[in-house]
Amino acid sequence: MATGGDRPGSGPERAFAPDLPEAGPVTLDADESGHLVRSRRARAGDPVVLFDGAGTTRFGRLTTADARAAVVEVEGPYADREPGRPIRIATAMPEAGRADALVSSLAELGVATLKPLTFARSPSGRDALPARRADRWARIVREAAKVNGRARFLEIAAPGAFETWVASGAAPVVLLDPDPAAPRLVDALAGAGGDALPWLVVGPEGGFTDAERDAARRRDAGVARLGATALRVQTAAVAAAAVAAAFA
């Protein structure tokens, strides 16, 4: 079963549907119908929670258990599990398979925005990865929302070069660095005020260059470490999001 809104434990099955009404019938598309009826074995009369990926959640009941065009009768609103403050991760991208897993984990953790970045030490071709995987990532993000009880999809922002991005933004930034002398991320976030947490930046596995560090310093970026060990890009980004979730 899926996550139960503001209640502990499991809850009704969840399905994606755009343009949700306050009440009335909603016909799911073929993919969502097949998942709900064939994969999840939902039957007529079962409770179903619908979400639109943009922040709206509705409670209803399955009235037509058709694996090609299931119909849910919307009865009213339903609780959403949205973090209190947005979590934003800007990261170098690992290779394709690990990148898929990264997107899945960040979406499940409730991250608001993922910004793919390229660095001086990024492998060739990584800047094209988001475009090549866009359809797959959209499906992964939608599936994650069926699990975590959140009504908003993870936004995957347009990729960019780190130095250009860090010079242009206004929000606070924290670079994640394995330097054992750096302060811990939990301590850096404990003092973070405002409506949103700082952007957490994960560099490539070769690390930040001196020029990239200088660009970050000109932006007054902070520096923090996740723990005592160095981590792969995918692991570091997911760990950073998990730590940030405690402060969201």
Can you put this structure into words, describing what you see?
The chain has 248 residues and is an alpha/beta fold. It has two domains: 2-77, Ribosomal Protein L25, Chain P; 88-245, Alpha/beta knot, CATH 3.40.1280. 31% of the residues lie in helices and 23% in strands. The chain has helices at 30-39, 96-108, 129-132, 134-148, 162-168, 185-190, 210-218, 233-245; strands at residues 2-3, 10-11, 13-16, 24-27, 47-51, 57-64, 71-77, 88-92, 113-118, 155-156, 160-161, 173-176, 199-202, 222-224. Strands 8, 9, 10, 11, 12, 13 and 14 form a seven-stranded parallel beta sheet that branches. It has a five-stranded mixed beta sheet with strand order 3-5-6-7-4. The protein has a two-stranded antiparallel sheet with strand order 1-2. Strand 5 (47-51) and strand 6 (57-64) form a beta hairpin. Helix 2 runs parallel beside helix 8. The chain is elongated, with a radius of gyration of 20 Å. The two termini are 26 Å apart.
Radius of gyration: 20 Å
N to C succession of SSEs: EEEEHEEEEHEHHEEHEHEHEH
Mean pLDDT: 94
Helix content: 25-40%
- Note the beta-strand portion: 15-25%
CATH topology of the largest domain: Alpha/beta knot
Give a count of the beta strands, DSSP E runs of length 2 or more: 14
Work out the helix count: 8
* Shape annotation: elongated
Secondary structural class: alpha/beta
Number of domains: 2
User: What is the H level of CATH, i.e. the homologous superfamily of the largest domain?
Assistant: SPOUT methyltransferase, trefoil knot domain
The CATH architecture of the largest domain is 3-Layer(aba) Sandwich
Query: What's the N-to-C terminus distance?
Result: 26 Å
Q: Mind describing the biggest β-sheet?
A: 7 strands, parallel
Question: What CATH first level of the largest domain would be assigned?
Answer: Alpha Beta
Low-confidence stretches are none
